[in-house]
Design goal:
Layout: E1 27-28, E2 34-35, E3 79-84, H1 99-112, E4 116-121, H2 125-136, E5 146-151, E6 154-155, E7 158-160, E8 165-166, H3 169-172, E9 188-193, E10 230-234, E11 244-245, E12 249-250, H4 251-263, H5 269-283, E13 302-305
Parallel strand pairs: 3-4, 3-5, 5-9, 9-10
Antiparallel strand pairs: 1-2, 6-7, 7-8, 10-13, 11-12
Domain Caspase family p20: 76-199
Keywords: Hydrolase, Protease, Thiol protease, Zymogen
Pfam families: Peptidase_C14
Length: 319
């Protein structure tokens, strides 16, 4: 009887999700029999099956499979929703002075990039969810992308509507590819100006030092993860304060609008957000001399991206 290799094949991948397809690269035992390795997950416990693959959901391929850039040449750029929260029913939450400056500046910036901007002021969670659900049910086939901005108070893992707190996935989960097929394969952008905790960043002083020196199968149908093509940019890292000037607006929104205004059509979005992070990190410092503990503090934005291509806000062509 021939011996069979019992060690794990060298080409077996170990992602966090179980694949139903067999790996195309074959492993062969020393009898010449094919052992087709399966991918396995690293999770403990049982997998929830609340979002199984539904073959009835069909989405149109918006761009070539291995294209480097998203298709930003649809008839419309797309909707930009701004949820601006200034006043709250929650007793411990103060009014957010300066947020209207953020809202006005961002509205002008996004309109210049051809977005259809819609602003919502001080919505309760029920009304916010209702509006998000309504937009997710719209047909976005002729749009490049969608953009959602939330300006509010927050704490680790939560944001605040006018009347209560909620998790961000309450908003973005409506736009996954299985729930909103007309946005499948298109960018879904979320910008969040809110605290993520109460920790302070005092910064570190840096001292000067000496200087140092197209695939052939691309047209075939293919499956994408339901959570692909999202980007969520937070004004600060988890656990930390996010700063806002009562007259000029928040550091993050000031920097985001500046970069989009100056270079929005020149660089791809991830490059722009790198410069936004640079601007917030290097150009701002809290000014609260009456409260020494809060004085001269720093901030660093944080971006989570599931984008699969480069995103550039190119000039819209007339149709």
């Amino acid at each position: 009887m021939c011996g069979v290799e019992t060690t794990q094949p060298a080409n077996m991948s170990m992602p966090d999700v179980v694949r139903n397809e067999r790996n195309k690269e074959h492993a062969v035992d020393d009898c010449g029999n094919e052992n087709l390795p399966y991918d396995v997950n690293d999770a403990l416990g049982s997998r929830k099956a609340n979002e199984p693959f539904d073959a009835r959901i069909k989405a149109r391929m918006p761009v070539d499979r291995y294209a480097s850039d998203y298709n930003m040449n649809h008839k419309r750029r797309g909707l930009a929703l701004i949820f601006n929260h200034e006043n709250f029913d929650v007793p411990q939450l103060k009014a957010r002075a300066g947020t209207n400056v953020d809202c006005e500046n961002l509205t002008a910036t996004l309109k210049d990039l051809d977005f259809d901007v819609r602003v919502y002021k001080d919505l309760k969670l029920r009304d916010l969810q209702r509006e998000i659900e309504r937009v997710a049910q719209m047909d976005h086939s002729d749009a490049d992308c969608i953009l959602v901005t939330i300006l509010s108070h927050g704490e680790l893992g939560y944001l605040y509507a006018k009347d209560c707190q909620y998790r961000l996935d309450v908003v973005w989960s409506y736009f996954t590819a299985n729930h909103c097929p007309s946005l499948a394969g298109k960018p879904k952008l979320f910008f969040v100006q809110a605290c993520q905790g109460d920790q302070l960043d005092g910064g570190v002083l840096l001292s000067p030092q000496e200087r140092t020196e197209t695939d052939s199968s691309s047209a075939m149908s293919y499956k994408i993860p339901t959570h692909a093509d999202f980007l969520i940019a937070y004004s600060t890292i988890p656990g930390f304060y996010s700063w806002r000037n009562t007259q000029k607006g928040s550091w993050f929104m000031q920097s985001l609008c500046h970069e989009l205004n100056q270079h929005g059509r020149k660089y791809d979005l991830m490059t722009l957000l790198t410069f936004v992070t640079q601007r917030v990190a290097y150009d701002f410092e809290s000014n609260t001399p009456d409260i020494p503990l809060m004085h001269q503090q720093k901030q660093i934005p944080c971006t989570t991206t599931m984008l699969t291509r480069l995103l550039r806000f190119s000039e819209k062509k007339a149709f």
